[in-house]
Write a structure and sequence with these properties.
The chain is mainly beta. The protein is 7% helix and 42% strand. The strands form three sheets. A six-stranded mixed sheet has the order 1-11-2-6-8-10. A four-stranded parallel sheet has the order 9-7-5-12, with no helix packed on it. Strand 3 and strand 4 form a beta hairpin.
Length: 161
């Protein structure tokens, strides 16, 4: 991602991994100053690992998830404020924890920046919902369709919650 990538909160051990991607929006700019919605592509390449992927955005986003060889994507959790959708390989569980259209059920929205208000609280909610520590976090305000998100490493970090 162009903006930055940071690791968050927990070293990956030998067990399942939790990777989190946070955006605000997924649009491409067009001539005349307009914008059109684009799919946010996330490629997961963690050979030999069981991976849960949390995808969160404020604006509605359709996530396109590609899984590398020998990576076992076990679950995708969609978070955010507005409705999220995911195109995932057949057989992958998709859980919805976004706000819009789900009534008064609890939701989780992970900010696009670890410096944003509520980031630590959102990470704790993700950890509670999945039962896993966060192996990596990547976030940016606006998804760049020329630069897909690559989840290819655990990135332990000493950054506090």
């Amino acid at each position: 991602m162009v903006a930055w990538a940071v690791a968050v909160l927990a070293a990956a051990g030998p067990g399942p991994e939790l990777h989190v991607v946070g955006l605000y929006e997924s649009y491409a700019r067009v001539a005349g100053g307009g914008k059109v919605s684009v799919k946010a592509q996330v490629a997961v390449n963690r050979p030999g690992k069981d991976v849960t992927l949390v995808l969160s955005a404020y604006e509605p986003v359709t996530w396109q998830v590609i899984v590398g060889p020998n990576t076992r994507l076990t679950k995708v959790v969609l978070c955010g404020y507005h409705t999220q959708a995911a195109e995932v390989p057949k057989g992958i569980e998709v859980a919805e924890l976004f706000h819009e259209g789900r009534g008064n059920r609890p939701y989780v929205s992970v900010p696009h920046s670890p410096d944003a208000n509520g980031f630590g609280q959102a990470v704790r909610a993700v950890r509670t919902a999945t039962g896993l520590g966060v192996a990596s976090y990547q976030g940016t305000y606006s998804y760049d369709p020329t630069k897909p998100v690559f989840v290819d490493a655990a990135r332990p970090d000493d950054r506090p919650e």
